[in-house]
UniProtKB/TrEMBL annotation:
UniProt source species: Tengunoibacter tsumagoiensis
Gene3D superfamilies reported in the protein's UniProt record: Electron Transport, Fmn-binding Protein, Chain A
Domain of life: Bacteria
Molecular function (Gene Ontology), one example: oxidoreductase activity
Cited Pfam families: F420H2_quin_red
The name this protein goes by in its record: Nitroreductase
NCBIfam families, alphabetized: hi_GC_TIGR00026
Taxonomic lineage: Bacteria, Bacillati, Chloroflexota, Ktedonobacteria, Ktedonobacterales
InterPro entries found in the cross-reference section: F420H2_quin_Rdtase, Split_barrel_FMN-bd
Length: 149
């Protein structure tokens, strides 16, 4: 059986606490001072809503979300649904998402890593990595552009 991508146990435990705080209306900042949101997306098999805390990357007036831990369930669900609900405090909005093609995603990721993203080692790249290395990284760590409705 192929190894399934999955966040480490400490992250999954921390996600429970983070989700609880965000649902209580406490505004949190992720690493790199990115705002934290709850992302709710319909499960691709069950159809039931699935919620995970995420940090939104903001660059040049656009918003993105990336998967540090690879192609995990929320990524698969988001690919299938192509829409989600973002919640922060009491404010919730439905968004459309567009998975970025590798060349475009590589540029966003490179700027994010150069900006000091502490999770860069999970992507297998550094600020001085070549654009080709970033393109390889986004094949297994996809990025999505968030398009507000």
């Amino acid at each position: 059986m192929a190894k399934k991508n999955q966040a480490p146990m400490f992250v999954r435990v921390a996600n429970v606490l983070t989700t609880t705080l965000l649902r209580a209306g406490i505004k949190l900042k992720g690493t790199g001072s990115y705002p934290m949101y709850l992302l709710t997306v319909r499960g691709r098999k069950s159809g039931q809503p699935r919620t995970v805390p995420i940090a939104i990357i903001e660059q040049n007036g656009k918003s993105y979300v990336g998967s540090v831990y690879g192609i995990v369930d929320w990524v698969r669900n988001l690919r299938a649904a192509r829409e989600a609900i973002l919640t922060r405090g009491r404010r919730a909005e439905t968004i459309n998402v567009r998975e970025l093609p590798p060349k475009e995603a590589a540029l966003v990721l490179r700027e994010d890593v150069k900006g000091g993203n502490p999770f860069a080692h999970y992507y297998g790249v550094a600020a001085d990595s070549s654009l080709e290395e970033f393109e390889r990284a986004v094949l297994t760590h996809p990025l999505f552009e968030l398009e507000r409705k």
